[in-house]
């Protein structure tokens, strides 16, 4: 059963993160938006030390404190993904672009968590507790393969003499790809095909570690929003990785669906988290809008019939309803992820709703403020630019609507496209 009372660990985490958002993100939000690709190391180093000390934001298993005996350990409900959702919503409220450079795994660690063996999880997830900040990324999109993952052409060929995989291909729009390959402990999870004729069935994921001479960052994108975050193009040229760098057991190489299911399991876990970042941006816009209106003597008279409200009051209340509905869908999806329940429909629903909501709320906030909302005097225009990415990365709104429809109608991907 989903409980709506915030667990104490999450409440404590949010209190700290709100301070970080207020004091380390908002004051420099405009600067890093206007100085794209300049890295906010003060924020990164602080967050690394804080997360290392508390374990917040990590999916890596933590060792039981020595003083806590197994028989004394109280059973607590799993809340790892719920904690991440609250964490990401608060940090995105501070600044979603700066949040995206938070040290840690992101999609890369989520892929390891979803598809990796226990040995791979222990090896790679533990890196986020090292002395230096560590980044991980996931590389799936290609110039000819966006939402249609069956069109992926990056290849992985096994060199039987050396027992290594040789990767070749190009990946684009890799979030944090530059930092993941720049830091010594970083890595990128690369999706490639071991059989181009097999479509999705031939897909597998491989861990390419920083420093591999076969992986090169060739371009950093200049973007409309989330400008503090790097979005990279990566070329793989005879990139050799060990045999056990393939996520999951190497023995499943000949199975037909394991690779694609690993990718989808990753997205089922992370799409609600991406949705949470959109809700954070939407909440920031709505709160600032209400604050400015209050300063101008405009208050929202809750409880009155709609016909007795002003147009602005109706607009604000409608935005609040949208925001809360999106957040409830996210809570359900991450609760299911924590409890290892199959959640592809709920994950996609939360992503679709959040993508729509953040776009509408930020646009409406700019509209209501008029010319002032369109200027750089306020962060509203920045949040408007930051908002749209929620509907695009980790599966566009159109693709996620297809996933929801297939689940509701019980159709396969080939039956409903």
Please describe the topology of this protein.
Elements: H1 8-25, H2 29-34, H3 41-54, H4 80-99, H5 106-115, H6 118-125, E1 136-139, E2 155-159, E3 164-175, H7 177-182, E4 187-193, E5 203-209, E6 215-220, E7 231-242, H8 258-295, H9 311-338, H10 344-369, H11 371-374, H12 380-387, H13 397-409
How is this structure best described in words?
The chain folds into three domains: 100 residues, Acyl-CoA dehydrogenase/oxidase, N-terminal domain (Butyryl-Coa Dehydrogenase, subunit A, domain 1, Orthogonal Bundle), CATH 1.10.540; 120 residues, Butyryl-CoA Dehydrogenase, subunit A, domain 2, CATH 2.40.110; 150 residues, Butyryl-CoA Dehydrogenase, subunit A, domain 3. The protein contains 13 helices and seven strands. It has a four-stranded antiparallel sheet with strand order 2-3-7-6. Strand 2 and strand 3 form a beta hairpin. Helix 10 crosses helix 13. The chain is globular and about 75 Å long.
């Amino acid at each position: 059963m989903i409980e709506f009372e915030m667990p104490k660990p999450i409440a404590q985490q949010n209190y700290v993160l709100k301070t970080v958002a207020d004091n380390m993100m908002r004051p420099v939000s405009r600067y890093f938006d206007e100085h794209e690709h300049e890295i906010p190391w003060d924020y990164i180093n602080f967050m690394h030390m804080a997360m290392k000390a508390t374990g917040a934001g990590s999916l890596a298993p933590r060792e039981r404190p020595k003083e806590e005996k197994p028989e004394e350990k109280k059973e607590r409900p799993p809340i790892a993904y719920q904690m991440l959702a609250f964490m990401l919503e608060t940090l995105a409220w501070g600044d979603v672009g700066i949040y995206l450079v938070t040290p840690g795994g992101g999609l890369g660690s989520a892929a390891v968590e979803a598809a990796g063996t226990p040995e791979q999880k222990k090896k790679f997830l533990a890196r986020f507790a090292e002395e230096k900040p560590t980044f991980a990324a996931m590389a799936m999109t290609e110039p000819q393969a966006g939402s249609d993952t069956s069109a992926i052409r990056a290849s992985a060929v096994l060199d039987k003499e050396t027992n290594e995989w040789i990767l070749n291909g190009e990946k684009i729009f890799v979030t944090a790809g530059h930092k993941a390959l720049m830091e010594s402990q970083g890595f990128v999870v690369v999706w490639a095909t071991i059989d181009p004729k097999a479509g999705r069935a031939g897909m597998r994921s491989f861990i390419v570690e920083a420093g591999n001479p076969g992986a090169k960052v060739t371009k950093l994108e200049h973007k409309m929003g989330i400008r503090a975050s790097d979005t990279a193009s990566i070329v793989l040229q005879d990139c050799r990785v060990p045999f056990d760098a393939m996520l999951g057991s190497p023995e499943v190489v000949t199975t037909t669906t394991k690779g694609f299911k690993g990718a989808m399991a990753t997205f089922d876990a992370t799409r609600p988290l991406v949705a949470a970042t959109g809700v954070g941006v939407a909440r920031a816009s709505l709160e600032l809008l209400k604050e400015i209106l209050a300063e101008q003597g405009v208050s929202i008279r809750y409880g009155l019939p709609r016909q007795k409200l002003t147009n602005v009051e109706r607009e604000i209340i409608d935005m609040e309803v949208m925001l809360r509905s999106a957040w409830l869908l996210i809570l359900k999806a991450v609760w299911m992820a924590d409890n290892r329940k199959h959640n592809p429909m709920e994950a996609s629903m939360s992503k679709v709703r959040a993508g729509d909501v953040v776009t509408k709320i930020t646009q409406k906030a700019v509209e209501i403020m008029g010319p002032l909302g369109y200027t750089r005097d306020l962060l509203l225009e920045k949040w408007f630019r930051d908002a749209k990415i929620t509907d695009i990365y980790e599966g566009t709104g159109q693709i996620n609507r297809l996933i929801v429809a297939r689940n509701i109608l019980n159709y396969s991907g080939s039956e409903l496209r």
